[in-house]
From TrEMBL:
Protein name: Fungal-specific transcription factor domain-containing protein
Signal peptide: none
Entry-linked InterPro entries: AtrR-like (IPR050987), XnlR_reg_dom (IPR007219)
UniProt-listed Pfam families: Fungal_trans
Molecular function GO terms recorded: DNA binding; DNA-binding transcription factor activity; zinc ion binding
The Xylanolytic transcriptional activator regulatory domain, residue ranges: 234-307
Transmembrane spans: 459-478
Top-level taxon of origin: Eukaryota
Organism: Favolaschia claudopus
Disordered: region residues: 72-102
Gene Ontology process terms (BP): DNA-templated transcription
Alphabetically ordered keywords of this record: Membrane, Nucleus, Transmembrane, Transmembrane helix
Amino acid sequence: MRASLRAVTTPPPFQVEDLESIYREQKFQLGYKAGEAEDIETKPWLGESSNASLVEAAVTFKADILKQESHRINPEPNPTTDSHTIRATAKTAQRTRHWQRRSSLPLASPTNAFDFPPEPLLFNLIGLYFTQINIYIPLLHRPTFMTDVRNNLHLRNTTFAATLLLVCAIASRYSDAPDIVAEGMGCGWRWFNQTIEIPSSIGNHLFAQTTLYELQYFPLAVMFLEGSSAFQTCWTLIGFGFRLAQDIKVHRRAVPPKPPSVEGELYKRALWVLIYLDGQMSCSLRRTCGTDYFDIDIEPPLEVDDQFWEDPIHPFKQPHGVPSNVAFFNYVLQMNHILSVALTILYPAPKTRHHLSINSVGEESLLVDLDSSLNGYLNRIPDHLRWDPAQENQLFFDQSVALHVAYYYTQMLIHRPFIPMLRQSGSTTLPSLAICTNAARSCANIVDIQRQRNETSPAIINLGVVFTSAIILLLNMWSMRRKGEPHDITSELKHVQKCMHLVKLCEERWQLAGLLWDILAELMSVGHLPPPTKTNSGSSWPDVPTQINGMNIDPTQATQDLEMMLEMVDTLWANAPVGLDLNETPHE
């Protein structure tokens, strides 16, 4: 017992592997241009579970294929295939407007003279927020919110004014109003900027008890910023908001228990939304979750639709047999918990791995447990949220898409470390690449069905998962290509195409979407070399096309350099034996 206690309370020693992880992260500072005069210590940290490391593997794999195929065509040394030349010739795949990071966000001067949208547009934006965002992340209560707006609370209360301005900013990305469409990726900033220095708002959180509207500010700000060049700021805002919620004990059950109330339920929703966003952002950036489910004993949000909260006869009672719109969010929270556990035990810092004695055998055992949890989760999904492309209820259909996409993303996340060529040490016989590839295909198919059904309405909640799916599919495609095995490359490209369609659909309003599309377009350019000669099996590989259904994927048509992305190439696979494939384990 004493030894165990000492192991827990004594900081683990530093491990050499930490330096390797930090070095890899430094080589991929997503969104920063080469030569930018900024210290590396001030740039955002991206770790092993972030998409940066996955892109790093894809870029390295691509460079290796180019070199092998060039040698197959011409055994003489070819200077155009060395790593430096590959980086130099890939400098055109970056479109400035999607990659440029603002040195500082424009700040609004403190004032109470807020510039709200004119009334017809104001109510249109509010409606868009509740139909496009609140159905997934139920932060606000529509009847209460609309009552406050109609009573002009935003003209008297600066913190509610900030809430309303953020709702308008978020919803503007879905609006077809001509003046908003003309703003493109700049839409919403005119309202967001007004909230940055509101008197008695963010700064005074440190010196006064947090109010409901102040607490709602943080998840709303994150929802707007996560699609911009300032996405790394979201993690900090989430942590700030969660600490403020803890300060007023929102995370603890009331003692003695109290009957439900509108204000109490809204506080609870704000806390759970922060927890959800923390899991998502921590996974994207591979930073430690600031929230811990084991420290929270408050009940999940009530599965009662907004219109039944203040029913005069049965308040806060969902009619029997009527599925609640909020059930989706509670099931996503369960998935989020599995995600946070996976981050902790499968993507630990090297010294944590050493301290907890996590080895390859233990990891596989943990993976089995996580897989079991995932299967149990899938079996518990209620009927109205099960995947059914013929689901007539549009809201339940969209929620079902997001729920299953989240499931497949979690499946990919927990199996990614067990793809042999992505493993730092040890071998495995687990079919993790096949599992990840099947999950990626399922994601591509589901979001494409939704895209066709919803036409031009983008489901931004699925953007990050779709990007991950596309990279997994490309890795699998290149794996088969390098081995020279017969493979239906056209079918695989169609799945990648489905992913790129969604990303393309979002890029005019979400800056991050354009950045992700540029990365995928560059990775697709692996086919610009002539096809290799026939393999021993007699099969040959076609070129990857430079266009897919009219979408240009030729990096030579882009506008700026991609050097920061291609600086990632020399670490993840450096110790792998020559010719080792993703499907092969080191001992084979």
